[in-house]
Design a protein that fits this description.
The complex is a heterodimer of chains A (about 550) and B (about 325). With about 550 residues, chain A is α+β, with helices and mostly antiparallel strands. Chain A is built from 16 helices and 20 strands. Classes of the chains: A alpha+beta (about 550), B mainly alpha (about 325). At the A-B interface, helix 3, helix 4, strand 12, strand 14 and helix 12 of A face helix 2, helix 4, helix 6 and helix 14 of B.
Chain lengths: ~550, ~325
C-alpha cells in the first residue's frame, strides 16, 4: 500500500513539474513571461549613433519588464544573419541611406514592405498585410501624380499603424565647403541629399586659383562601370561620366536631361526626344541607337543589377533621328525615376563587341573594367589611383559644362584627419563625415573659410523588428517598443540635434510625398506600459512582462 | 649527395608542406567565418535571381570539397582567382597596392634597423652612464607607444599645425604619377612617405636597438674584445670591428623575418595616413568576405615570410660559419 502511495505521489510530482513546460510550448504560453529579446547593432566604433540608440531602447525595454540584451556585431555578419537567417533574430538596428533614385517613394514603399519580397527580398522583417500590398501595387501603376500621392499617403499611414518599422530618426546631412574656393550661390542643395549631389558638382563656381573640387570619401571605389550597381562613391562617379535621359532635380522630381523632352502618350507609351549635338568623350556623336542599346543591354543578362530598372519595358521603337518610343508592359509610375533617370547611356560602338564577347564567357559585363571608360557626361574619366583617389576632368563640350576643371575624390578612412585636411585645404568639399557632428560644427565655427550646410536626409535610421517571431509578431508589442524609442531624445541626445524624429519611410525632405499627418506611438515608458496593458499584457510580482491570455 | 643539397631539398619540401597547410587553413577559415560575400550587394532592388547569379559567378554554388579542389588546382597553376568585391583578378588587385606597402615598410624597417643598430652599440658602450638610462627609457617608450597615438600626434603637429607635410595618400589631390619610377623620383612622394614612415620607424626601432645592445654587452665581455682594448686599439674600431660584428647575427635574422612580416602592411598606419597599401586592402577583403582576395593576399604574405625565414637560415650560415648546416642534420 505504502509503495502504491509513494508511486502515486511521484507521478503527481512529475506531472506538476512537466505540465507548465508542456502547456507553454503547446498551448501558446498564456500568461507566460515575454521571451528575452536580443537587439542587434553594429559596433560603436563604426556606428556610434545606432549603438547608442539601441542601448537606449534596450534600457527602456528592461524598464517595462523585458529581458533585453544588446548584441554587437560587425555590419557584414549582422547583415548575413538578418538577410539569410530570417527566423533567427528578434530586432536589429538598420538604416536606409539617401540615393537619387530613392527620391521616388516606390523603392521604399514597395520593395521594403510588399509581401512578395518577404521570403528572399528586402522585406527581411517579414511584414505581410494584404491591404498594404494592394496599395503598394496600385501606386506603381498610377500615373496621375496627385492620385498616386494619395496612395503613398495611405501606405505611410498603414505602415505607422502597423508599426512595421520602429522608426528612429532622419539624420541631417552635413556638408562643408571652402567658401574662399567656391561661390556660395553655386553650391546647390538637393532635397534629401544635401549639397553632395550632381547639381553642385556641375555648378560649383571656383572664385580662386583653386579650380578643382576636391572631396573625400571614407571607403574605396569598387568599379567604374556603367552596367554595374556597386558602391556609394562608384555611383557618384558613374552619374558624372555617363549621361541619363532624365536627372533627379533639386526638388526631388525627375527632369529631362539628355532627353530634350519626355512625353507620356498614354499609360504605357512614352515618347522621348534626344537632345541634339551630344558627343561621346571619344568625339563620336550620341545617337538614338546608343540610347536603345543602353536600355536593352540589361535585358540580355549581362548586367543583372540593372535588370529591375528595365524589366517593365516591352520594347523601344526608334521613330526618328532623335525620337524614341518606350512601350511599357504595364503602367509604371516610377518609370522616369527608376528607369529614365537611372540607366546610364553607353556608347554602342564600344560596348556591343564587349557584350558579344562576354556572351561566350562565364563572366558578365559587371566584371568588365575599361582602362579609360567612355561616356558622354559632364566629366570625363581621367585617372583612378587604386585605394587613393579618382580624378575626373571637366567635359567642356558638354551641354552643361562644369565650372570646375577637375572633380577629385580622395579616399580618406581617417575621419579626424579629414577635418584637418579640410582646414589646411587638402580637400575643399566635405562630402562624407561619420564622426561627431558637434566637433564638425566647432571646426566650421572656428574657421571663417568654411561653410556648413545641414539638411534633412532622405534616408532614415530605424529598428527593424522581426514580424515572424515573438514578441515582435504582436503589433501591440511593436507599438510599445516604438513608444519606448523616444525619437525626440535620440535626435537631441544621441544625434546631438543633427537629426529629426522619423515617422515614415518617406522623408519630410520630400515635401510632395511625405504624409505630415501620421500618428506614430510615442510617450516613453509610461505610454508603452499603457499600450501593453490595453492589449492584455500583465506583469508578475517581479515586474516581468507576461503575455496576454489570448 | 652533398649534405648541403640534401638540406636544401629537405627545406624546400618543408616549405611546400607548410604552404599547403596554410592554403588549406586559409580556405576553410574564411568559409567557416560568419559572414557572406553577398551582403555587400544587399539593396532594395536585390532580387533572388541576382543572388543566384552571384553565387554562380563566385563558384559558391558548388559543394565545399569541390571548391577546395578547384582552389588547389588554381593555386598550383599560380592563379589566385578573381576578387568578389573588385571583380578583378586577385593578382592585379594586390599588384596595385603592393609597391606602396613595400616602400613604406622597407623604408621604415631600414631606418629602424640602421638607427637601432647604431643606437644599440652606443648604449652598450655607454653602459652604466646616465645617457644609457635615458636611452633605454626612451626606447621602451617608443616601443610601447600605440602607433595610432604617435601617428595622430605627428599628423597634428607636422601636418595640421606646421603644415610641413601632407596628411595622407601618396600624392596631392591633382597629382598622379605616370609610373612607379616617376613616383620614386618625385620629391612629392617622399613628402607623403615621411610621416607614415617615421611613425612606423619609431615603433620598430625598439627591437633592433635592445637586441643589439644586449648582444653587444655579451660580446664585450669576451677575451678578444678585452685584449683589443688592452692593446690600445682605437675605441671606434673596437666597438664596430671587434664587438658589433659579432653581435650582429641575431639582429640580421630578426630583420630578415621582419621583412617577411612587413609585406602584410600595417593596417593602423595605413588608415591614419590614408596610405593605399596591402593592410587596408586585407581588412576590406576580410570584412566583405572576399574569399579569393583574402586568401590570395594571405598566401602571398605567408610565402614571403616562409621564404625570408629560409633566407635568414642561409645568412646565418654565411655570417657565422660555426653555425653550419652539418650541425643541423
Amino acid at each position: 500500500m505504502r509503495r502504491k502511495i509513494r508511486f502515486m505521489l511521484s507521478f503527481v510530482l512529475i506531472l506538476v513539474l512537466i505540465l507548465p513546460i508542456f502547456s507553454q510550448t503547446v498551448f501558446g504560453a498564456e500568461g507566460d513571461r515575454v521571451v528575452d529579446v536580443t537587439l542587434l547593432t553594429r559596433p560603436k566604433s563604426s556606428a556610434s549613433n545606432e549603438y547608442e540608440a539601441i542601448n537606449l531602447v534596450a534600457k527602456n525595454l528592461r524598464k517595462i519588464g523585458v529581458q533585453a540584451e544588446v548584441k554587437v556585431t560587425p555590419w557584414e555578419q549582422m547583415a548575413d544573419v538578418v538577410w539569410y537567417q530570417r527566423e533567427s533574430w528578434d530586432i536589429t538596428g538598420w538604416q536606409m541611406t539617401a540615393r537619387p533614385e530613392r527620391l521616388d517613394p516606390d523603392e521604399f514603399i514597395y520593395n521594403l514592405f510588399h509581401s512578395s519580397t518577404a521570403e528572399k527580398g528586402y522585406n527581411f522583417i517579414g511584414y505581410k498585410n494584404p491591404q498594404y500590398d494592394k496599395i503598394a501595387e496600385k501606386q506603381r501603376v498610377t500615373i496621375d501624380r496627385e492620385k498616386r500621392k494619395e496612395l503613398i499617403y495611405k501606405a505611410q499611414k498603414i505602415l505607422a499603424e502597423d508599426v512595421a518599422y520602429i522608426y528612429s530618426v532622419h539624420p541631417k546631412i552635413n556638408n562643408v565647403y571652402n567658401n574662399q574656393v567656391f561661390a556660395d550661390d553655386s553650391m546647390k542643395e538637393m532635397a534629401g541629399l544635401g549639397l553632395k549631389n550632381f547639381w553642385t558638382y556641375i555648378n560649383a563656381k571656383p572664385i580662386s586659383d583653386q579650380k578643382d573640387i576636391v572631396l573625400n570619401f571614407n571607403d574605396t571605389v569598387q568599379a567604374i562601370n556603367p552596367l554595374y550597381v556597386s558602391g556609394t562613391v562608384d555611383s557618384w562617379i558613374t552619374e558624372l561620366i555617363w549621361d541619363r535621359l532624365m536627372r533627379m532635380g533639386q526638388d526631388g522630381l525627375p527632369k529631362p536631361w539628355a532627353a530634350k523632352s519626355v512625353e507620356w502618350l498614354n499609360k504605357t507609351k512614352v515618347k522621348v526626344v534626344l537632345r541634339e549635338g551630344m558627343k561621346w568623350h571619344d568625339g563620336k556623336p550620341v545617337t538614338v541607337e546608343d540610347v536603345k542599346f543602353s536600355f536593352e543591354v540589361p535585358k540580355t543578362g549581362e548586367a543583372p543589377m540593372y535588370r529591375p530598372f528595365v524589366k517593365k519595358i516591352k520594347n523601344i521603337e526608334i521613330t526618328g533621328d532623335n525620337t524614341l518610343i518606350f512601350n511599357l508592359k504595364e503602367p509604371w509610375a516610377a518609370f522616369e525615376t527608376a528607369s529614365l533617370a537611372k540607366i546610364n547611356i553607353i556608347p554602342k560602338h564600344k560596348w556591343k563587341p564587349i557584350i558579344e564577347d562576354l556572351k561566350e564567357k562565364p563572366k558578365n559585363a559587371e566584371s568588365y573594367q575599361a582602362d579609360k571608360p567612355i561616356g558622354s557626361g559632364p566629366f570625363k574619366f581621367s585617372k583612378w589611383e587604386f585605394n587613393e583617389k579618382v580624378i575626373l576632368k571637366a567635359n567642356k563640350e558638354h551641354f552643361h559644362a562644369p565650372k570646375v576643371e577637375n572633380w577629385v575624390v580622395r579616399f580618406v578612412p581617417n575621419m579626424e584627419a579629414t577635418l584637418g585636411m579640410l582646414e589646411n585645404g587638402e580637400i575643399n568639399f566635405l562630402a562624407a563625415y561619420t564622426g561627431d557632428s558637434t566637433l564638425l560644427k566647432q571646426t566650421v565655427d572656428n574657421d571663417a573659410k568654411l561653410t556648413m550646410n545641414s539638411s534633412v536626409d532622405l534616408g532614415f535610421r530605424f529598428l527593424a523588428p522581426n514580424h515572424r517571431v515573438k514578441p515582435f509578431k504582436d503589433k501591440a508589442f511593436r507599438k510599445a517598443t516604438a513608444a519606448l524609442t523616444n525619437r525626440q531624445i535620440v535626435a537631441q541626445v544621441v544625434y546631438k540635434g543633427f537629426a529629426v524624429p522619423c515617422d515614415s519611410v518617406v522623408s519630410p525632405a520630400l515635401e510632395f510625398w511625405h504624409n505630415p499627418n501620421i500618428d506614430y506611438p510615442s510617450g516613453g515608458v509610461k505610454q508603452a506600459r499603457q499600450i501593453l496593458k490595453e492589449a492584455g499584457y500583465k506583469w508578475d510580482e517581479q515586474g516581468r512582462l507576461l503575455y496576454p491570455k489570448n | 649527395m652533398n649534405l648541403k643539397w640534401k638540406y636544401l631539398i629537405k627545406r624546400t619540401g618543408q616549405m611546400i608542406l607548410t604552404m599547403w597547410i596554410i592554403s588549406t587553413v586559409l580556405f576553410f577559415i574564411f568559409r567557416l567565418m560568419p559572414g557572406n560575400p553577398l551582403v555587400a550587394y544587399i539593396n532594395p532592388t536585390f532580387t533572388e535571381k541576382q543572388q543566384e547569379i552571384l553565387m554562380e559567378q563566385f563558384g559558391l554554388n558548388k559543394p565545399l570539397w569541390m571548391q577546395y579542389f578547384i582552389y588547389l588546382k588554381n593555386l598550383l597553376q599560380g592563379k589566385l582567382g578573381q576578387s568578389f568585391f573588385f571583380k578583378e583578378p586577385v593578382t592585379n588587385v594586390i599588384a596595385k597596392v603592393l609597391p606602396n606597402t613595400i616602400y613604406l615598410m622597407l623604408t621604415s624597417l631600414i631606418m629602424a634597423y640602421v638607427i637601432g643598430i647604431i643606437g644599440g652599440i652606443f648604449l652598450a658602450w655607454k653602459r652604466g652612464e646616465t645617457i644609457e638610462t635615458y636611452g633605454l627609457v626612451f626606447t621602451l617608450f617608443t616601443r610601447s607607444a600605440p602607433q595610432f597615438w604617435v601617428g595622430m600626434l605627428l599628423l597634428a603637429v607636422f601636418s595640421f599645425q606646421l603644415d610641413i607635410f601632407p596628411s595622407g595618400g601618396v600624392a596631392s589631390a591633382g597629382i598622379v604619377y605616370g609610373s612607379e619610377l616617376e613616383k620614386l623620383f618625385s620629391l612629392q612622394f617622399y613628402k607623403h612617405l615621411f610621416l607614415p614612415a617615421l611613425t612606423l620607424t619609431i615603433y620598430l626601432l625598439g627591437l633592433p636597438l635592445l637586441l643589439m645592445r644586449s648582444n653587444m654587452l655579451d660580446v664585450m665581455d669576451e677575451a678578444y674584445v678585452q685584449m683589443a682594448k688592452m692593446r690600445g686599439v682605437n675605441k671606434i674600431r673596437v666597438m664596430f670591428k671587434y664587438a658589433a660584428r659579432n653581435a650582429f647575427l641575431p639582429v640580421i635574422t630578426a630583420m630578415a623575418v621582419g621583412i617577411g612580416y612587413a609585406m602584410g602592411g600595417n593596417v593602423v598606419i595605413e588608415k591614419i595616413f590614408s596610405w593605399p597599401g596591402l593592410g587596408r586592402l586585407l581588412v576590406k577583403a576580410v570584412s566583405t568576405s572576399d574569399y579569393p582576395l583574402a586568401q590570395g593576399a594571405f598566401i602571398l604574405i605567408a610565402a614571403i615570410i616562409i621564404f625570408m625565414n629560409f633566407i635568414a637560415d642561409i645568412f646565418y650560415n654565411i655570417l657565422d660559419p660555426r653555425v653550419n648546416i652539418e650541425d643541423r642534420k
